[in-house]
Amino acid sequence: MKLIKAIVKPFKLDDVREALVAAGVEGLTVSEVKGYGRQKGQTEIYRGAEYQVNFLPKVMLEAVVDDAAAAKAVEAIKAAAATGKIGDGKIFVLNVEDAVRIRTGETGAAAL
Amino acid sequence: MKLIKAIVKPFKLDDVREALVAAGVEGLTVSEVKGYGRQKGQTEIYRGAEYQVNFLPKVMLEAVVDDAAAAKAVEAIKAAAATGKIGDGKIFVLNVEDAVRIRTGETGAAAL
Amino acid sequence: MKLIKAIVKPFKLDDVREALVAAGVEGLTVSEVKGYGRQKGQTEIYRGAEYQVNFLPKVMLEAVVDDAAAAKAVEAIKAAAATGKIGDGKIFVLNVEDAVRIRTGETGAAAL
Amino acid sequence: MLLSTLLVLLMILPGLALFYGGLVRQKNMLSMLMQVSTVTVIGMMAWLLWGYSLAFTDGGGLDTFVGGFGRLFFKDVTTSSNVATFSTGVVIPELAFAAFQMTFAAITAALVLGGVAERMKFGAVVVFALLWPLLSYYPMAHMVWWWPGPDAIAAAPTDPIKSGLIWGFGALDFAGGTVVHINAGIAALVGALILGARKGYRTEPMPPHSLTLTFVGAGLLWVGWFGFNAGSNLEANSYAALAMMNTFIATAAAGFSWTVTEWVTRKKASMLGMASGLVAGLVAITPAAGFAGPVGSLFLGLIVSPICVIFCSTIKNALKYDDSLDAFGIHGVGGIVGALATGLLVNPAWGGAGVVDYTTCAADGDISTCDTATYVMSTQVLAQFKAVLVACVWSAVASAIVFFIIKYTLGLRASADAEEEGLDIVEHGERAYHS
Amino acid sequence: MLLSTLLVLLMILPGLALFYGGLVRQKNMLSMLMQVSTVTVIGMMAWLLWGYSLAFTDGGGLDTFVGGFGRLFFKDVTTSSNVATFSTGVVIPELAFAAFQMTFAAITAALVLGGVAERMKFGAVVVFALLWPLLSYYPMAHMVWWWPGPDAIAAAPTDPIKSGLIWGFGALDFAGGTVVHINAGIAALVGALILGARKGYRTEPMPPHSLTLTFVGAGLLWVGWFGFNAGSNLEANSYAALAMMNTFIATAAAGFSWTVTEWVTRKKASMLGMASGLVAGLVAITPAAGFAGPVGSLFLGLIVSPICVIFCSTIKNALKYDDSLDAFGIHGVGGIVGALATGLLVNPAWGGAGVVDYTTCAADGDISTCDTATYVMSTQVLAQFKAVLVACVWSAVASAIVFFIIKYTLGLRASADAEEEGLDIVEHGERAYHS
Amino acid sequence: MLLSTLLVLLMILPGLALFYGGLVRQKNMLSMLMQVSTVTVIGMMAWLLWGYSLAFTDGGGLDTFVGGFGRLFFKDVTTSSNVATFSTGVVIPELAFAAFQMTFAAITAALVLGGVAERMKFGAVVVFALLWPLLSYYPMAHMVWWWPGPDAIAAAPTDPIKSGLIWGFGALDFAGGTVVHINAGIAALVGALILGARKGYRTEPMPPHSLTLTFVGAGLLWVGWFGFNAGSNLEANSYAALAMMNTFIATAAAGFSWTVTEWVTRKKASMLGMASGLVAGLVAITPAAGFAGPVGSLFLGLIVSPICVIFCSTIKNALKYDDSLDAFGIHGVGGIVGALATGLLVNPAWGGAGVVDYTTCAADGDISTCDTATYVMSTQVLAQFKAVLVACVWSAVASAIVFFIIKYTLGLRASADAEEEGLDIVEHGERAYHS
Ligand SMILES: Nc1ncnc2c1ncn2[C@@H]1O[C@H](COP(=O)(O)OP(=O)(O)O)[C@@H](O)[C@H]1O
Ligand SMILES: Nc1ncnc2c1ncn2[C@@H]1O[C@H](COP(=O)(O)OP(=O)(O)O)[C@@H](O)[C@H]1O
Ligand SMILES: Nc1ncnc2c1ncn2[C@@H]1O[C@H](COP(=O)(O)OP(=O)(O)O)[C@@H](O)[C@H]1O
């Protein structure tokens, strides 16, 4: 199994979720994160205090999928999240050794 | 070492923490996340705008444990977090290559 | 590629980011998390209700870096985040199998 | 009077700003607060410079529709000038009257923003704050409220009585149902139509970012509204107490009936429904506050909410316009319901205050000494209907002109990127919340 | 008077709603706001329909305990009806009086919700809003405040003076310490006991989700309380100024002494302690506001907080009842302390206003022309004690009846699932915050 | 008067507390709220005990600078004592006057906290709350406001007229520009310098944790400020209406001009700029509210904000002091601009109210019967300048003494750890928000 971690722009969250579901992913977990990267933040100014905002709001999706389904899921995210503009985000793939569904105790791919 | 990622219902957080501690886990990190899965969200309606809430509030616990302790930790979470109802959550196990305790610089299992 | 997950004290975030950038890391993602560990929380008291705060506010940085750069990045974090006091945090290193830059579709190290 | 003025300020900042602000998404929070404030401060300055004059002076040949230039820059408005109330010989300081009316002008323009929230460009809002009152608010206020006062009439009893158009219909509007709510509600609808819907409208969720703030706003609106309704009596007497009681009862009833409507149709009563109902009740009772009896107000409150619910959900969804915060659905619809109902509830047989025979008081213009006229339901309802119609048409046309002018010069909408990233960071360079 | 009425509304919405709302967990925020609003709007409508009549009319045979049906549906309450103040011949519009009292009825029932927060079913709250005032608030208000007024007494000086039971004790209660605070506090305790504790009470942390909101609520309560305390004078005079000064001093002192208590016992002074102390001070000064001197108020403020602290921590923890937001610990306990202390602080030797010899004014009933009676501490304290006792017993019994009726019909508690998921989403279908 | 007192309370809690609280980082939110509340409650108790006496009684030999002990513990302040207004024979209850002034004392000390936020130890704040008014506020209030009143003067017309130092200059200060704003602003600057900058100042971002709260605070400040400005008239008349109008216009203009300044210099108009401008306008109009005309107020508002912007950004950044929430940059600078401008705007040729020839009214001291003096710009501006200078110097010296005393006894700053972890958890054992 693979853990697919995708960091995308917040307003793309719904599109990406739909794309993943369409690609057969049945569960995922989302966190609100702040991202630092090539996309430079806006300058925020509060009264006199001006500073470069290094971190931009992003959302991180984490979905564990079957090995077989990983490539398709990555594709789905890529297609749904791309705007072609800097800051579109990243997808990382990690190996997962085991998965458990708490409710039933099922493990492995059956747990996804 | 293994990274155990558990996504559970928010009100189970304290129970799970206690179970993990009882199982010998000494540290963990918790994020507030939103989960999408088999458990369907409630419908939220704001004036006219009705929509299916796809994401439900969950908490994600991440604990890195010794290889030997992993199974026990997974069991502990499973026992503490289960209500038998849909949406109880998932546990994922990933391999961790190294760990460092920032304060002391210790690495490996000693750092946990 | 490696995923470096560092859990540090919130007020160290900016120092750590600068250290990582100086070490050549070009992107990272940050979440606000709550940590449980050796550092015992303060006692919070709300009217009569007193309780031990088990979780302390921390930030978690996640950066995926080239295998070669991993050690340097870990060092950089360690140096920047250490105060020598309990609760300084942890660094975990995981293996990453693939990375994709959504904007361009680049994969692997080129995507970082 | 001074207190009432304060209360109306409380309604705008922070009241309305929070009510609206809580309903937008987090990324547009500051833009909402900023737009409300900007419209308010510009409205206040413009009132001093030209607004007061255009609303509350004799407009000469155009007097039926708009005032004149006699009080530009508050010329001759001093600590010794006074304006008439409804009783002969009773006056209030003109500065107090001008301040009270200034807050009405400010809040009306701010209300419109609810229809165009989360997508209108800040620059466009600035221009709107200048233009819209010129074409819509000042004329409407003049048409509904302008008359020279009982003393002036007593001084020249044989002259024909001058007044604005709608005042002349004999339509009843205690505290601005037409001028404020119908006017703002229609403008919001027109604005929403001309701007078009927000990106993602009806496909992505756009939940309110803080219903707590919306609730606080609704509570402050209620408290402040007494400035509207009791202050509009100009004199403090037992009619002010009646207006207050009605404002309590109708509001409570409307809050209740909105939640009951939800409970019946959706099995759940929502807090937003309660808050929306409270505001709908406030809107509906505005024209009727001094005319209806408490039991009549109870009925008005119970009736207005279900009607607003239909507009805010069924009709809006069917017609697919994006009245983002339901400024039309609550203020426009509630205002129309209230204005029409006023014609019924004033019926003395139903506990209302009855109408006044203006012919018997024309000699001195003092309303408090006029005879009570025979209330004829059809006459009164017709007068109300005419007033509503004129207000709707005038407001629609004036607002359309204003929005189109802006659209084809400066542009109305923020860029697609700004809409996605949020207006706060793109237009104002700030974010509402940090940790 | 009108202003005071507004201020009491400000205390409820948004004041009390935020004070309580900030203290619950995020998942129950909207339910808290919704419950407070619902109890308020139902309370207002019921006041019009039957509450006012049951509290403030002659109850015939039951007059000692409750009013009658003479003013159901505000019958005969018009712009020309008046009610007496404490001075012969001075009257205020009955609509203003009824509106003022309406807000008291509303806030009292809302205060009770603090004891049963985070677990009471919404439907049960609706029924509570209807039943509890019938059994507890209207009778209590009648017992404490009902008398026909000086003019009525002057008109028939030989008749025995009618009045409610507690008024007859000669107990002093300036602005509703018994009727509002003791009554609500006891009801909250009874409710907390009958409902049982929240799931996870004393095992999981249940920290307040936003102390900022609680602070805002406390601030608005303070501001609004002057409506309570200065408005209860009915006439604006230098006694209103005294009531205001006392309300400042006692409140400041109680805020201070709560934090000092914490500092001494826990080495840390908390913001929640400050906010709680402010409210405790407001509660305690309520019955004494027009009777104590400023220095007496200072002492009262300093004393009340440590006593409340004991109830909110030591005693509550020892007895393990879940008075979720300390409605009993602050309103009940603070109210009792204030009521008893009023008997002492009125002592002219201690700077108090002294008591009045009712026998000397029975002829015309005008309190302002009565002679000052000799203050006898034991007599006065006894009268206060009797009043407190009757209030506690009546409220406890009436509340128990109401809560048990609901429990055995509709059920009181939300389902265990709802309690875990949060009442907001399960009962109201909304969440307070989105990003 | 009573209402104005309430409004000033609303300005402090929750107004100022939220304005400041929104600007700090989340980890210091409760400490900000707590510091404001603590300074307020201590200030109120101290006012009763000694403050009122030291500010508003005859100080004997030191009368030029400070009051005496005649009213310690509110001795002889009863429901039957009165104080003079500006008209002979018109009095108000002393308790009302004392309460009104009490709120001024409280808010002034609270304003200072904006300069030292996020690092001052709670214990140090407590001591500051006691000491600073003794050395700075009470003397300053005495110097500016103390005079025995027209009746006293009429009773002994041949005696030399006693008064505080600054009152004697003939400087105009309608509602406390010197006593409140310059005084607090300078103290904040001195405090900021003596404490030193926050850890990480100018290297890490310290964005406001909730601009929404700051906005709410600004709105409540505006609403409450009418208590300041209209209430300072002591009598309600058309001058109160003028003060109100000016308070609207100058504030709106200053909000507008701050955002325009930002737009011009940074291409973006920020909500925080709007809120800051509103407050700057309120500060600037304070001394001028009853003296300027509406058009003059418009100019004052337009001018004050750009000057404040320069101090809050360019100068503060250049000099590197950490006036954390710009208490000096807005209150100090705005106060000075307003005080000087008052000397110009009172010019009757510019629509101002003109100055009064005190020699013609010395006989009876009744200002309302004095002749209008010839306005000489240079004389008046000089008088204003002297007042500003004395206020600045006195406040700087007094504040330095207070801050140094605390520094070398108890210590001023929270520990470095506490500053990093946040004062909320370390000093108060709580966190503002939980989920
Ligand atoms: N090496 C990395 N490790 C973890 N997160 C990263 C990394 N690089 C980028 N990110 C995340 O992806 C987001 C987008 O990256 P950025 O460099 O701004 O744009 P792009 O992906 O278009 O090159 C960042 O805001 C950050 O959250
Ligand atoms: N494949 C997955 N990858 C990541 N998170 C998942 C995945 N499947 C489920 N989750 C998380 O677990 C939660 C519970 O899953 P759900 O399918 O609703 O119930 P159950 O675990 O009982 O089958 C989800 O809300 C989501 O946060
Ligand atoms: N085994 C672990 N797995 C995941 N996170 C951990 C683990 N141990 C510690 N942490 C995180 O690191 C933080 C600091 O750890 P702690 O034990 O308090 O101090 P130290 O790192 O100085 O020993 C914790 O608050 C927690 O967030």
UniProtKB/TrEMBL annotation, chains A, B, C:
Post-translational modification O-UMP-tyrosine, affected residues: 51
Listed InterPro entries: N-reg_PII, N-reg_PII-like_a/b, N-reg_PII/ATP_PRibTrfase_C, N-reg_PII_CS, N-reg_PII_urydylation_site
Database matches in Pfam families: P-II
UniProt record, GO biological process: regulation of nitrogen utilization
GO molecular function terms noted in the UniProt entry: ATP binding; enzyme regulator activity
Superkingdom of origin organism: Bacteria
Keywords: Nitrogen fixation, Nucleotide-binding, Phosphoprotein, Transcription, Transcription regulation
GO cellular component, one term: cytosol
Similarity comment text for this entry: Belongs to the P(II) protein family.
Assembly with partners or alone: Homotrimer.
Name of the protein: Nitrogen regulatory protein P-II
Organism: Phenylobacterium deserti
